[in-house]
Specification:
- Keywords: Disulfide bond, Extracellular matrix, Glycoprotein, Leucine-rich repeat, Proteoglycan, Pyrrolidone carboxylic acid, Repeat, Secreted, Signal, Sulfation.
- Binds to type I and type II collagen.
- InterPro entries: Leu-rich_rpt (IPR001611), Leu-rich_rpt_typical-subtyp (IPR003591), LRR_dom_sf (IPR032675), LRRNT (IPR000372), SLRP (IPR050333).
- A 13-stranded parallel sheet has the order 1-2-3-4-5-6-7-8-9-10-11-12-13, with no helix packed on it.
- By secondary structure, the protein is low in regular secondary structure.
């Protein structure tokens, strides 16, 4: 091989030169399959699957030497020097993370623990994917993420966590904790996360979230579906655009609850225990809303909504009358609802129950299911 490279081993007395040659020979023995992106423009982890030529994915041998350039269990594509791919390799522990890494992918393994100081060498990490493992709160270092001052995306969904990881870096923009066993969100769990834009906590066992969302002034999306919430969060941030609360045990909505979030576009509260008695008169009369899902609750009347609403889902309730005042307070040529889709199927009303002025009020509706 040295002859093919046009060099002689005798030329390389210096250690650094020999190291270069070793790295070159190594690069020639490994094949990759990836698209040509520019350095630093790292696409999402789902796009990659790196396997060394002539090898099979299996449990690593702990006794083998670990390179400071790239752990032998993982792949470090030459064209993406800041990315570490250790996903889907049957790993049971976290390998060493080189200091140059900004993107580290450990998903789809059998990792059960994150030891204290696991990422202290790689404090420039921006993306850290640890989802689809078996990590428990008891085996996670108390300050394991504290030094990652540049971390923007943290994926810990589909694990065995029972507690919120704390403290979290203030740089965080996305926090993925869905499909765990978290039952409580402590008051300090989200403290200082002023850059957080998306919070995913669905499919947990959370009973109450209190006022933890209110200080998150950059939050755009929060997913708390499939939990055990008995009431809505105590206050929403003004930046919120998407709120998902379906499959909980919520019974009441305070008056003007959503008006504190003037950018709110989508609210989903299907499969709860909402009744008309538990709803304030203007609970959903918010001009910013475009889509409202209240299906599969216990409503007997159509709640009042804004004329700006475009999609309203009320199927699977106990509604027994069609009240046009729920959509239009005044019905004439100038005042009408912008509603396009209205679902009332699976209730106790018939199509012939629609009032005569319904077509004038709902003149934009292309779908009305009763």
């Amino acid at each position: 091989m040295a002859g093919l490279c046009g060099v002689s081993l005798s030329q390389y007395d210096d250690y650094d030169d020999m190291l270069w040659l070793q790295q070159y020979l190594r690069s020639q023995s490994t094949s990759y399959s990836y698209s040509p992106y520019d350095e630093g423009d790292i696409p999402p982890y789902e796009s990659y699957s790196y396997v060394p030529a002539g090898s099979s994915v299996g449990e690593p041998i702990p006794e083998a030497p670990v390179s400071r350039e790239c752990p032998h269990e993982c792949e470090c594509p030459p064209n993406f020097s800041a990315a570490l791919y250790c996903d889907t390799r049957n790993l049971k522990y976290l390998p060493f993370v080189p200091s140059r890494m900004k993107y580290a992918y450990f998903q789809n393994n059998q990792i059960t623990a994150i030891q204290e100081g696991a990422f202290d060498n790689a404090t420039n990490l921006e993306w850290l994917a640890l989802h689809n493992n078996q990590i428990t709160s008891e085996k996670m270092g108390k300050k394991v993420f504290a030094k990652l001052k540049s971390l923007e995306r943290l994926y810990l969904d589909h694990n065995n966590l029972t507690k919120m990881p704390t403290p979290l870096p203030r740089s965080l923009r996305e926090l993925h904790l869905a499909y765990n066993q978290i039952s409580k969100v402590p008051s300090n769990a989200l403290e200082g996360l002023e850059n957080l834009t998306a919070l995913y906590l669905s499919h947990n066992q959370i009973h109450e979230i209190g006022s933890n969302l209110k200080p998150l002034k950059s939050l755009i999306l929060v997913d708390l579906s499939y939990n055990q919430l008995r009431k809505v969060p105590d206050g929403l941030p003004s930046s919120l655009e998407q709120l998902y609360l379906e499959y909980n045990n919520i019974q009441t909505i305070p008056d003007d609850y959503f008006k504190v979030s003037p950018k709110l576009l989508y609210v989903r509260m299907s499969h709860n225990y909402l009744t008309n008695e538990g709803l304030a008169p203007n609970a959903f009369n918010t001009s910013s809303l475009l889509e409202l899902d209240l299906s599969y609750n216990r409503l007997q009347k159509i709640p009042r909504v804004s004329t700006s609403l475009e999609n309203l889902y009320l199927q699977g309730n106990r509604i027994n009358e069609f009240t046009i005042s729920s959509f239009c307070t005044i019905v004439d040529i100038m005042n009408f609802s912008r509603l396009q889709v209205l679902r009332l199927d699976g209730n106790e009303i018939q199509r012939n129950n629609m009032p005569s002025d319904a077509p004038l009020c709902l003149r934009w509706a292309s779908v009305i299911e009763i």
